[in-house]
Write a structure and sequence with these properties.
The chain is an all-alpha fold. It has 13 helices and two strands.
Length: 318
């Protein structure tokens, strides 16, 4: 089947949409289950993106490893770096109230953005730094990008599988209890601080993985990729679909992503001079307006509250 109708830019936008879906699924564990409102998603995403680029560029790896293994190794190190950042930030903020968590995570994202701009030796400063092309070559650039889209979809599907497994596990039930009434869970002898810290570290590591993978697609990482729009897209998508439902992230990001990234940015014939500066700003304003509108009219999202009969195993069933 011919894919001539599918442009290179549309494929790139689809990769962005599925990357955002993965971030929204991870935010679902943080916010929908654990009650941690992470407004610094782009910080952990950016740690993964830049850690991947720095490990790949600055870490001397054996030439015998070829093309694929240095990329895989750098992605794993990027996950570790983002996970450690999540562990540190989580240790500082998970015991705070909602306002403190929002300010703490937002401050972390601002620090990551500042370091990406100022540390010219390691990050390339405002000009950014090159990473690598795809670790394969199956023909045209569009064919290579399509394959990377397929790989991204598989990774996001695995994240969805992990999220659903957490829902059905005793650990997931502890997170739900913590998010709904932490004082009650603590009074029953549960270590809510440790449960939230472990969850925050793991989800931050996966956010870093998605950032590193998107850095491969870009071939060149710059501070402009770490704008607040990354956080807004994941948060708005999750809230629209329903923060308490794992499929809410999927449904919400698909609706918001297709509307704002494809229809608004690609298919509406705006003047070309708008696309560089005006449209990205207008898109962020629409994200914010959508978030306010949904919270005012349907605060539980399109899919509503959590279905406990579906997420908790019944006694006697494995």
């Amino acid at each position: 089947m011919s894919l001539d109708w599918l442009s290179q830019y549309v494929v790139t936008v689809l990769i962005l949409i599925f990357t955002t879906m993965g971030l929204a699924l991870l935010l679902h564990l943080q916010l929908g289950l654990g009650g941690i409102g992470n407004f610094g998603i782009v910080g952990f995403y950016g740690v993964g993106m830049y850690a991947f680029a720095m490990f790949l560029v600055h870490l001397p790896l054996p030439d015998a490893w070829g093309m694929i293994w240095p990329i895989i190794f750098s992605l794993l190190l990027a996950m570790v770096a983002a996970g450690l950042a999540g562990l540190l930030v989580g240790w500082l903020i998970v015991g705070l109230d909602a306002d403190g968590i929002l300010l703490g995570t937002f401050g972390f994202a601002a620090i990551v953005y500042g370091l990406s701009q100022t540390n010219r030796k390691w990050t390339g400063g405002a000009e950014g730094m090159g990473t690598t092309t795809f670790p394969y070559n199956i023909g045209s650039q569009k064919a290579n990008t399509l394959l990377w889209l397929g790989i991204t979809v598989v990774v996001v599907a695995l994240i969805l599988f992990y999220v659903n497994r957490v829902h059905r596990s005793p650990y997931g039930r502890l997170l739900i209890a913590t998010g709904q009434n932490e004082a009650l869970a603590r009074s029953l002898g549960k270590s809510t601080f440790r449960a939230k810290l472990v969850m925050f570290s793991i989800t931050s590591a996966f956010m870093g993985l998605l950032g590193g993978m998107y850095g491969i697609m870009l071939h060149y990482v710059r501070p402009v990729e770490l704008g607040v729009g990354v956080t807004l897209a994941a948060m708005v998508g999750l809230v629209v679909g329903g923060a308490a439902r794992s499929w809410g992230a999927v449904v919400g990001v698909l609706l918001v992503g297709v509307l704002f990234e494809l229809v608004f940015m690609v298919w509406i014939p705006f003047p070309p001079e708008w696309r560089r500066q005006a449209l990205p700003v207008i898109r962020q304003m629409l994200y914010g307006a959508t978030l306010i509108l949904v919270l005012m009219t349907r605060p539980l999202g399109l899919l509503g509250r959590m279905r406990r009969d579906k997420t908790v195993r019944r006694p006697g069933r494995g």
